[in-house]
């Protein structure tokens, strides 16, 4: 069978359209060398909701964006500084594609994932083009296909920190469940494009990011095939063992140094709430004991923001339908702590806009 890229090109030619010859271009291509990172305007923030639950089987994760907003996310961000200009772009809407009988084995609800992700990609690009830090609220982790694709359309040269208990690196051939929220990294990575068949509805998505520009933090539930791929390609993977061995400060330093050694790339943090220990965030669908503390999770966001290059953040897999009301409150509260840190809140205290009230 022809690999995904070859088939995509064949289908595009048949349809009378073209795909650039750089469809699978490495992010280390010389053409990227002249691209200077645009300074992020942290005084402008855009929020996008993606109430999407078709990447996995548990109902309720689509309620995550509403729960986080209802808990006062915008007010909490605004408390950082009255100068912040915050715009809520609302929720992503989509109509599922009609594949007319075309299917890909072991990719459940693909027509929904493809349609929602495409619309999200356009929206994320719009937010970034509007000179805003983009905050995307999931929804399950399949939405990262669209959010990272949208970031790539804006910035071209992107580094990703994937904070998660799971690697999300399966293909349709290796996934034990067929749930696409376990596949987004494999769909995005240039090096893995030949591991896929042609995927209907996904011609818009170009796997051009190098897997070497991605670092995992928080891993502790990795499938055998995922581990083999991590080792084969030398993917930067900092599991909980590394967090315990080196500490979160050193892990974050090493991650940033390896995926962006020159400090030139636009930074994307894709943050699954299940990276936190279940005691910190119980209301999530695939929790695994022994995770990050909330303090460690916040530190990751603070350091990402401190680079001055953080352009986009996903916060996913908050499921208000799981657990007791107290579990939900604790999980949503943790999500807000992470997001305000990504927007510049300092645990040392935010900087006053005026010192007029302090006597000289």
Automatic annotation (TrEMBL):
<keyword id="KW-0464">Manganese</keyword>
<dbReference type="GO" id="GO:0005829">
    <property type="term" value="C:cytosol"/>
</dbReference>
<dbReference type="Pfam" id="PF00491">
    <property type="entry name" value="Arginase"/>
</dbReference>
<keyword id="KW-0378">Hydrolase</keyword>
<dbReference type="GO" id="GO:0000050">
    <property type="term" value="P:urea cycle"/>
</dbReference>
<comment type="similarity">
    <text>Belongs to the arginase family.</text>
</comment>
<dbReference type="InterPro" id="IPR023696">
    <property type="entry name" value="Ureohydrolase_dom_sf"/>
</dbReference>
<keyword id="KW-0835">Urea cycle</keyword>
<dbReference type="GO" id="GO:0004053">
    <property type="term" value="F:arginase activity"/>
</dbReference>
<dbReference type="GO" id="GO:0010121">
    <property type="term" value="P:L-arginine catabolic process to proline via ornithine"/>
</dbReference>
<dbReference type="GO" id="GO:0005634">
    <property type="term" value="C:nucleus"/>
</dbReference>
<keyword id="KW-0056">Arginine metabolism</keyword>
<dbReference type="InterPro" id="IPR006035">
    <property type="entry name" value="Ureohydrolase"/>
</dbReference>
<dbReference type="InterPro" id="IPR014033">
    <property type="entry name" value="Arginase"/>
</dbReference>
<dbReference type="GO" id="GO:0030145">
    <property type="term" value="F:manganese ion binding"/>
</dbReference>
<keyword id="KW-0479">Metal-binding</keyword>
<comment type="pathway">
    <text>Nitrogen metabolism; urea cycle; L-ornithine and urea from L-arginine: step 1/1.</text>
</comment>
<protein>
    <recommendedName>
        <fullName>Arginase</fullName>
        <ecNumber>3.5.3.1</ecNumber>
    </recommendedName>
</protein>
């Amino acid at each position: 069978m022809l690999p995904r890229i070859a088939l995509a090109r064949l289908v595009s030619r048949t349809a009378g359209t073209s795909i650039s010859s750089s469809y699978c271009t490495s992010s280390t291509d010389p053409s990227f060398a002249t691209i200077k990172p645009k300074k992020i305007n942290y005084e402008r923030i855009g929020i996008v909701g993606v109430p999407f639950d078709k990447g996995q089987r548990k109902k309720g994760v689509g309620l995550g964006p509403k729960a986080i907003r209802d808990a006062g996310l915008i007010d909490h961000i605004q408390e950082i500084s009255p100068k912040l200009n915050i715009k809520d772009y609302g929720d992503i809407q989509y109509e599922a594609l009609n594949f007319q009988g075309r299917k890909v084995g072991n990719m459940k609800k693909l027509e929904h994932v493809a349609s929602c992700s495409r619309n999200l990609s356009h929206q994320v690009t719009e937010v970034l083009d509007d000179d805003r830090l983009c905050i995307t609220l999931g929804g399950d982790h399949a939405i990262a296909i669209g959010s990272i694709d949208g970031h790539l359309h804006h910035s071209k040269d992107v580094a990703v920190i994937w904070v998660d208990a799971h690697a999300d690196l399966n293909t349709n051939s290796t996934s034990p469940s067929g749930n696409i929220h376990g596949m987004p990294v494999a769909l995005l990575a240039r090096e893995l494009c030949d591991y896929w068949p042609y995927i209907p509805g996904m011609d818009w998505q170009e796997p051009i990011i190098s897997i070497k520009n991605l670092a995992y933090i928080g891993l502790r539930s990795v499938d055998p095939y995922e581990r083999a791929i991590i080792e084969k390609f030398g993917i930067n993977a900092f599991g909980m063992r590394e967090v315990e061995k080196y500490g979160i400060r050193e892990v974050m330093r090493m991650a940033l140094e390896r995926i962006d050694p020159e400090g030139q790339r636009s930074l994307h943090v894709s943050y699954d709430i299940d990276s936190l220990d279940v005691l910190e965030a119980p209301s999530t669908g695939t929790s695994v004991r022994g995770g990050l503390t909330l303090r460690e999770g916040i530190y990751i966001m603070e350091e990402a923001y401190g680079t001055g290059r953080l352009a986009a953040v996903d916060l996913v897999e908050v499921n208000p339908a799981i657990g007791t009301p107290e579990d939900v409150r604790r999980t949503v509260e943790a999500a807000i702590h992470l997001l305000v840190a990504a927007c510049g809140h300092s645990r040392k205290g935010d900087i006053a806009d005026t010192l007029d009230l302090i006597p000289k």
